[in-house]
User: Fold this.
Amino acid sequence: MINKNILYFTRTMGVGGTEKVILQLCEIMKQESNKIVVCSCGGVNVEELNKMGIKHYGIPDIEKKDIKTVLNTLKIVSKIIKRENINIVHTHHRMAAFYTKIFKITRSFIFIHSAHNTFKDKKLLTKFALGNAYIVAVGNKVKENLCDFYRIPKCNVEVIHNAIKPFKGPIQPIELLQKYRRDGYFLVGNIGRLSEQKGMEYFIKAVPLVLKEYRKIKFFIIGDGEDKEKLENLVSDLNLKNDVILLGYRNDIQNVMSQLELIVLSSLWEGFPLTPIEAFSVGKTIVATAVDGTVEIVEDGVNGILIDPKEEGQIADGIGEIYKFCEKTKTFEESAFEKYKEEFSYEVLKNRYRIYYKKLMG
Assistant:
């Protein structure tokens, strides 16, 4: 027990990987601390916090940097820290860290920041915001980015990899997937937010290339986001409505993955993505872009296939290779599950965070 009150401070409790990590931390530290509260501008995972008995405070969107919003946010979060007698503020967004750095001027608490992505912008803001924080980088590439580009001292940054709970099943059948499987189709899924980062357009553009050689494949996109209409239009323009199906947002990703043959991650950049870990946790292999973070998880030719970003031809080739060589795929899947158990299991994450928090307590 650390006997402290913890505030997790982030932008949103929406559907991304950062939000999943915060939910994991709430569950882990709920048993270790006196109290946990979360503040954000809201999102679908606020309901998960409610189920866990974690108090959530709504705040303005911290991406908005006009004077009125900044002053209002400073006032609201300052009151939360005082009212809840917060001893630890753990931020998960650079602007949350910026505000917390200001609070540190007049208040005494432990300041932790989790860095979830690599960046090459806002250098002065980032150096100021993280100047006296204890930093958790979700991967080695994220730490390198912080230390090399932003000149954060290496001794201030600890690497704790993201993780996923094991899928205990049973599988809840998704009728559409089961129907195509019964009809003999090979099912390929791409899972993530429908945004520029995830490179979904290159996945869609790869589909006609795959179908030139292999007709018994269906492609699924699982997720929601600002690019939904753009991607739907691309599917329509390429006459792929019968081949590419957008399933929308799902909160049972491991259940979905268990009913697919292959996962594709077409991201243009990543800090340390959860999608490969989720795939590995259910014994699935992956075709993934070789971007920061992903290369720490996926080993080319061992537990998956790495490709260059923005290359629909390489996506198509990777899918074709997995489709053709069943024995190779089986070996990839076995290696993937072993790596999950050794490095990315929930128990490993839980133990590392417990040790880290206790170390900061002195």
The mean pLDDT is 95.
